[in-house]
Amino acid sequence: MKQETQRKSSCAIPAEIFRRIFLYTIIGEFADGVYGAKRLQKIAYVSERGKGIIKPFTYKKYYYGQYSEQVQDTNEQLLSLGFVKTFPLNTIRKTTITIDDDTYEGIEQGNGYKISDQEMLKTCESIVSKAQPQLMRATKKAIRDHGYKKEQDLIDYCYGLKEFKAKDEDEIILESNLPKWVKTPDLSNDKCDELILSFTPSFIDFTNKIVKGFEKTTINWNKVDKVVLKV
Amino acid sequence: MSSKYRFLVHDIFQSQLDDFIESHSKSLKSLVSQIQSAVSDPLHSGKPLSGVQNSKLRGCIRRYHVSGRRGFRLICLIVNSSRKVVLGIFLSGNKRPSINYNKIPWEQYATEIYNDLINSRMDRFKEYRIAD
Fold first, then answer.
1. Across the interface, do A227 and B127 touch by the CB < 8 Å criterion?
2. What is the pLDDT of residue A8?
3. Are the C-beta atoms of residues B85 and A221 closer than 8 Å to each other?
4. Least CA distance to A190: which residue of chain B?
5. Which of A126, B20, B60, B94 has the fewest CB atoms within 10 Å, counting from its CB?
6. What is the value of ipTM here, to two decimals?
7. Please, what is the angle between helix A37-48 and helix A15-29, to 10°?
8. CA end-to-end span of chain A, whole Å?
9. Strand segments (E) across chain A
10. d(C-alpha A90, C-alpha A110), whole Å
11. What pTM, to 2 d.p., does this model score?
């Protein structure tokens, strides 16, 4: 490795990129993937709810508990980038969920989510740990304490949280306070730039479409103007 | 040289290149040198964008430093190795910028360039050659 590539400085990444990196880290921290979107939502919420912890996502009180549209959107972006893969949950289950003494029955057949790039996980984990160490610690604890609970137990826990009980449906329970740019200590400017690009779905889609366009065309070089660059 | 790739730029990115040439004449030598390395051996020059999951794109998005690591950023796309084309797709206007690539209208650019390609509007591209 060249000496230059080891030079470190502090740089910053946009909030939406940090959200993708954070959610990727949560999914990757699960030993064999996250079983279901509901579980992902709840664990992200539990990770963020502590005092003094930066909050990447905003959550509202919904029928199934704490829900963040941002978490869902971010997960979809990670799926479109290919960083996260889905796997079918191997059981179609009849579920019974009890909320405030009311029982709801339904059939659940969702997807699980897992990451596909362990190297990238190491990078992302390191970014979250260094940029927001409290958040990383809280995430590991949330997964350890609640990530593998039975769904009903996880829901019971989340419904039992005082800030959830205090709100009406559709009200914001927890509001994101992530700055527009998140400082990332010890990350070189170059690595920072690379991560931002890698985690920008519109850029990756752009390059994919251009490559497809060139595959479909025959280049008529006579129509291409030539410019000579002189120094 | 027939083994070399050709360096193309679409109209959309032409202004970035023009502005750079006009505003940063001191860095022109470095830009030319990076373009030269991109067309000479694109698969081994610059740095490939890591983390790209799409196998067709892996290794094809290359990043170059103009005027050193603390300088400007040039991004190229190897569009088709058999046709030997390297497309310049981004050149930063400032040194060491913090770029939010999310704010760039990539979707709109993709549609425009794609439509030009499939409708054979090659007059919307320019080929840059390095003077001997």
1. yes
2. 47
3. no
4. B69
5. B94
6. 0.93
7. 110
8. 31
9. 11-14, 59-62, 65-67, 84-88, 93-99, 102-108, 111-115, 172-174, 181-184, 225-229
10. 9
11. 0.88
